[in-house]
Amino acid sequence: MRFPRLIPVLSLLAMPADAQTLHLGNYADAIHATDFDPATGRLGPSRAVAPLARASFLDRSADGRFLYAVAEGKPGLLAAFAIGPDGALVPVNTRPSEGSGPCDIALSPEGRLVAVANYGGGSVSVHRVAGDGALGETVAFFQHTHAADAHPDRQKRPHAHGVTWTPDGRLLLVPDLGGDRVYVYARQPDDTFAPNPAQPWFALAPAAGPRHAQFSPDGRHLYVINELDNTIAVATYQAEAATLALTQTLSTLPAEGFAGFTKTAEIAVRPDGRFVYASNRGHDSIAVFARDADTGRLTPGGHAAVPANPRHFALSPDGRWLLSAGQDADAIRVFAIDAVTGKLTPAGVDLATPKPVCVRF
User: Fold this and answer.
1) Distance from chain centroid for Cα 249
2) Could you tell me if 148 and 90 are in contact, meaning their C-beta atoms sit under 8 angstroms apart?
3) Which pLDDT belongs to residue 1?
4) How far apart are CA 316 and CA 137, in angstroms?
5) Is the per-residue pLDDT at 2 higher than 90?
6) In angstroms, rounded to a whole number, what is the distance separating the alpha carbons of residues 209 and 322?
7) In the prediction, which pLDDT does 331 show?
8) Confidence of residue 343 (pLDDT cuts 50, 70, 90)
9) What whole-number distance in Å separates Cα of residue 235 and Cα of residue 244?
10) What phi, psi does 37 have (nearest 5°)?
11) Sign of the four-CA dihedral 67, 68, 72, 74
12) Phi, psi of 34, rounded to the nearest 5 degrees
């Protein structure tokens, strides 16, 4: 028996007082926001909160006062906003990204710097952040020149695709899809940067196409999602030596394989460090992996179907929920995470929102 009136009735229910405001980057014409109930996993309606075209990836200051966005274009743009009541965004200022097609943005752990990867430009830049949240001067710029040329279409030139800080903020890691490398930049006491003397970069397999990376909560292991060959590379991080060593590579696809075209997008480690999740676009799934806390090695744990083209997904701070953004489905789906197995179960009705590509708690 079907209940066609159930969805509109639920959408009108008031959010609880402890609801969290999430911001949504997208390929539409404005940044959106929605409210999230951490008790039930329910999302409120999507609403536009700041006009900014192609504002894809976002990051938020640790104190929740400011939001930063990349606007993909030629040239690229960075935008800073103050976060007001109900998630409203008040413009602070903008800065050039120093390259075309900025595709990822990340604040340093203490919030003094913001880094951006320029996919089209094949470069990375780092900018100061003022006390009032404003984007300041450029303190570092690195133009990548190496191209792997192992993939027939995607590696003719460098394509910086992600920015990830070590937990202590000493190093900035930049996966470059075009070069099959993760570049490592060392932060100086004056907040300038130089290639890491101990290890300026480490290589991935030919035609791997490294895209994004995330550290485990204990900071001992790094997980790199490789877009072109649908794999995850696991590395051990030696903080004192400032070096990383690859220890495992495994597929994000089912063991029986997948006949259609697919590529990966995002990777995330559950806050308790027990599970790692990765998204497949084309296969349109989130892959689940159990993580060994000592070695960092991963064991496949199945897949969950998600809305088409899961360019990004986010884990709730308490680790109970996963929110997958389906860019081609104009929808976000919430999953409950099983604390014992890590498996994903749909929590309710998908949220309709235009071309979502980033979910930011």
Assistant:
1) 20
2) no
3) 31
4) 32
5) no
6) 25
7) 98
8) very high
9) 6
10) -90, 110
11) positive
12) -150, 160
Of 310, 316, 303, 322, nearest to 358 (Cα)? 310
How far is Cα 328 from Cα 92, in angstroms, rounded to an integer? 31
Q: Which residues pair with 24 in a beta bridge?
A: 32, 359
Q: Which two tokens stand for residue 12?
A: 């009108």
DSSP class of residue 261 equals -
The structure tokens listed for 115 are 């880094």
Q: Classify the C-alpha dihedral 312-316-322-328 as positive or negative.
A: negative
Q: List the helix and strand counts (H, then E) for the chain.
A: 1, 30
- Cα separation of 20 and 23, whole Å? 10
Tokens 């536009």 label which residue?
A: 48
Separation CA 42–CA 12 (nearest Å): 12
**Nearest-angstrom CA–CA distance, 269 and 99:** 29
- pLDDT tens digits for 120-129? 999 999 999 9
What is residue 262's predicted lDDT score, i.e. its pLDDT? 98
Alpha carbon distance 284, 306 (integer Å): 6
The per-residue pLDDT for range 260-313, each reduced to its tens digit, is: 999 999 999 999 999 999 999 999 999 999 999 999 999 999 999 999 999 999
Quick one: tokens of 63?
Answer: 């104190």
Tokens 């994004």 — which residue? Answer: 212
User: 357 near 56, Cβ under 8 Å?
Assistant: yes
pLDDT in tens, 144-170: 999 999 999 999 999 999 999 999 999
Residue found by looking up tokens 């991963």 in the block = 298
What is the SS3 assignment for 85?
helix
DSSP string, 66-103: EEEEEE-SSS-EEEEEEE-GGG-EEEEEEEE-SSSSEE
Can you read off the two tokens belonging to residue 103? 């595709």
Evaluate if residue 246 carries a pLDDT over 80: yes
Say whether pLDDT at 95 is over 90: yes
Hey, what are 328's tokens? Answer: 């081609």
Q: Which amino acid is at 163?
A: V
* Cα 286 to Cα 89, 165, 253, 341, distances in angstroms: 31, 24, 9, 14
Q: Within 82-209, where are the H helices?
A: none
What's the mean pLDDT when you consider all of the chain? 95
| Amino acid, res. 346 | P
